[in-house]
Amino acid sequence: MEGQNKKMIIRNCLVIRVLILFQIFSFFLLIIFPQIIQSEEEKSFTRQRSGQVIFTPHERSDSEPQQVHISLVGKDHMRVSWVTEDKNARSVVEYGTKQGGEYEAKAKGYHTSYNYFMYQSGKIHHVVIGPLKPNTNYFYRCGGLGPEFSFKTPPLNFPIEFVVVGDLGQTEWTTSTLKHVNSKDYDVFLLPGDLSYSDTQQPLWDSFGRLVEPYASRRPWMTTEGNHEIEILPVTEPTGFKAYNARWPNPHKESGSNSNLYYSFELAGTHIVMLGSYADFDDESEQYTWLVDDLAKVDRKKTPWVVVLLHAPWYNTNEAHQGEGESMRKSMEGLLYEARVDLVFAGHVHAYERFTRVYNNNEDPCGPMYVTIGDGGNREGLALSYKKPVSPLSLYREASFGHGRLRIVNETHAHWSWHRNNDNDAFVADGVWIQSLSSFKECWNTQHHNHVHHEEL
Ligand SMILES: [Fe+2]
After folding, report:
1. pLDDT at position 37, please?
2. 59 is a domain residue
3. 33 C-alpha vs ligand 1 centroid, how far in Å?
4. 90-136: per-residue pLDDT in tens?
5. 108 and 223 share one domain
6. Is the CB of residue 416 less than 8 Å from the CB of residue 408?
7. Do 299 and 404 reside in the same domain of the chain?
8. For the segment 25-69, what is each residue's pLDDT rounded down to a tens digit?
9. Which of 185, 224, 94 is nearest to 147 (CA)?
10. Residues 301 and 180 in one domain
11. How far is the CA of 267 from the centre of ligand 1 (A)?
């Protein structure tokens, strides 16, 4: 018996060693050939080579905060997130409306950290502060030392302006996109997935945090996950989203969601749903059930605008990523249509495309307007090839880097614009006025009619 046990132990040790060797081998293979984690679809089209990854160095002391960013929590709170190398640094934020270190309030939060293969993260701090007044400048300091930061809270009512940028990455294109974004004021930054393009190289998450800090510490950044947030490794990292969940927590609990991968929030008359393209979405999934409940709670008198963001587009006439959003569309499009969602933003395809109002592949005046805005500036370059002939549903398409702006003027009208990076800041390459479906009487009558019809059946 003892002999058999010994053999078993030796065999188990051998298996573990082989697995570790395989892990090390695949890790270095990914460093040398990152393209092996690309899907077949990604390989099948030509991209214009983008700029190289810019590594943003850490230039403060170990105990000082770095990678500071803020995100909305509930109707009047803000989460402040940052990283310190020093494990003894405190998770506290001092804040107030006066500049220069005279802070009226102080809040304590929590910290986390994670291991990823041979990488050990710094101390990741998250502190929720508030209640905060709307449309007000606040000054704050993290952990009791380091530079003072400031942000402006969003307004309570219209008008409100959102910046929308997908697939951001960290190249010189990213820098130029962010400069353009910053050249005109806005209230909230929305990111429909693919943030750092770390692709398992964890120090790139830190570099990304430092690159975006001047922007993400000033205005709330609200994100949902893309495929580049998954970062699954065989054996050691089987579940995915480790870095994303630790570094970019979303206010999912506040909207009844059990997952950081999908949630909703409301501000200034707008209900925003962040869907998860990489969480289960079939009609028996938690995400589906949550979405049904979330949309049922929407009161269009309180929030006349409903906007959805997700990563893999449901409508796309680019050759890149064809059909990748199709099963999610088939599962959830009916829910969005019934709820009369106004707009759906997606990323993933590295180009800009605006559609008309669509439902089930047909133009429909009561369907959402679809926009692909995956042109933030990542290292993979642009998706240049489009399907021909042009679909009548697709109204504007162009493979250039840029960013979008949604300015909701009032209960009924909003302006969507797309800003190409190589134009001057004032130039709007594409722009359109949109009317909220909440003000389209005929759409609600149709729904009522359908509802009655179902009941009769
Ligand atoms: Fe993507």
Report:
1. 43
2. no
3. 18
4. 999 999 999 988 899 999 999 999 999 999 999 999 999 999 999 99
5. no
6. no
7. yes
8. 555 555 444 444 444 334 443 444 567 899 999 999 999 999 999
9. 94
10. yes
11. 27
pTM over 0.90: no
Residue 313 alpha carbon to ligand 1 centre in Å? 10
| Segment holding 327, helix H or strand E | helix 326-338
321 flagged as catalytic: yes
| Token pair 């369907």 in the structure block, residue | 367
Of the candidates 180, 321, 350, 403, the residue annotated as catalytic is 321
Q: How many whole angstroms from 24 Cα to the centroid of ligand 1?
A: 26
65: left (phi over 0), alpha (psi -120 to 50) or beta: beta
Nearest-angstrom CA–CA distance, 126 and 142: 10
pLDDT of residue 22: 53
Q: Which residues of 35-72 are buried (b: 16+ CB within 10 A; e: fewer)?
A: eebeeeebeeeeeeebbebbebebeeeebbbbbbbbbb
CATH number at residue 132: 2.60.40.380
**CA 281 → CA 81, 100, 111, 313, 343, distances in Å?**
29, 48, 31, 14, 19
